[in-house]
Amino acid sequence: MQENSPEIIKVIGEQGEEIFMKLQEIVTVEDKDYALLSVVEEDTLPTSDDDDDELIIMRMIKTDNDCTFEVIEDDDEFNMVANAITDADDLDEE
Questions:
Q1: Hey, what long-range contacts does 10-16 have (CB within 8 A, 24 or more apart)?
Q2: Is residue 2 in a domain?
Q3: Number of domains in the chain
Q4: How many C-beta neighbours within 10 Å does residue 44 have?
Q5: Quick check: is 20 in a domain?
Q6: How far is CA 94 from its chain centroid?
Q7: Each residue's pLDDT tens digit, 48-87
Q8: Is 48 exposed, middle or buried (0-12, 13-18, 19+ CB in 10 A)?
Q9: Are the beta carbons of 24 and 54 closer than 8 angstroms?
Q10: Which structural domain, as residue segments, surrounds residue 31?
Q11: pLDDT of 22 higher than 80
């Protein structure tokens, strides 16, 4: 993946529906990778960057030739990742 070109991925929702998401960023917290994603309407990039998009954080599980995304069900893990992202954003703004 190139650093400047966002990637659109397809995930399968709880009801079996296809959901297209834009990969915003990958962060590593305690040696685990997490994806920051935003929902897009179809499998094309949105025409504008909307900072108001709701971000979704998912755990990334990498295998030799594939990558899957998992919902973070543990509140402590989710809060740890969210705090790491917030702390990194605060440092970027200084």
A1: 10/43, 11/69
A2: no
A3: 1
A4: 10
A5: yes
A6: 24
A7: 555 556 889 999 998 888 888 899 999 999 999 999 988 8
A8: exposed
A9: no
A10: 7-93
A11: yes
